[in-house]
Design goal:
Blueprint lengths: L1 E2 L6 E2 L21 H8 L21 E7 L4 E3 L6 E5 L11 E2 L13 E7 L7 E5 L6 E3 L2 E2 L6 E3 L4 E4 L2 E9 L1
Parallel strand pairs: 5-6
Antiparallel strand pairs: 1-2, 3-4, 3-13, 5-7, 7-8, 8-11, 9-10, 9-12, 12-13
Length: about 170
């Protein structure tokens, strides 16, 4: 059993989030990233359709991850300070840094280049999301954000791209 640090509710071992208050129960460290991705990847996807973990540079003292809520999958990107989210299309020259196609992105209304995440250099936990003129909009905690305006995001915020829900995980290591 795991005890929620926020509300003290007992959860089954292996639970990622508290069923009572939604607090994160397991904080992936840099060493655990590949294990988390492998264990939580759906078994019906083969290597040709499974997106590889993109690279995203974070401050050495923090962990940044995106948790696909319905799919129960962590994506731990590691790239520079900006990444794009969307879905790949064979007829488009520019592809997103994180391809969400394998997670029913098309059916959920995710645009090819839907949103961009940015991190302030050397500033712990300072991230923003920018809607890239997507067809179905981007929401932060249920509030639609304006097109091409950087909106701050924080640990446990829920991003909704079309109808695809993604929880932001930012934590110290």
């Amino acid at each position: 059993m795991i005890t929620c640090p926020n509300c003290q509710k007992e959860e089954l071992s292996g639970a990622l989030f508290c069923s009572e208050c939604g607090a994160q129960l397991i904080f992936p460290s840099a060493n655990d990233r590949s294990t988390i991705l492998k264990e939580n990847r759906p078994h019906h996807l083969d290597s040709s359709t499974t997106p590889t973990a993109p690279l995203y540079g974070v401050a050495p003292e923090e962990t940044f991850a995106l948790y696909l809520v319905e799919e129960k999958i962590f994506l731990t990107p590691t790239k520079e300070t900006k990444i794009t989210l969307g879905r790949k299309s064979p007829d488009q020259a520019i592809s997103p840094d994180i391809d969400l196609s394998a997670y029913n992105a098309y059916e959920k209304g995710v645009s090819r280049l839907h949103a961009k995440l940015t991190r302030e250099d050397n500033t712990f936990g300072t991230y923003h999301v920018l809607d890239l003129n997507s067809s179905n909009g981007t929401r932060v905690n249920g509030t639609r954000i304006p097109i091409n305006s950087a909106v701050p995001i924080h640990n446990n915020d829920i991003l909704t791209l079309g109808r695809l829900k993604i929880q932001v995980v930012i934590s110290p290591q």
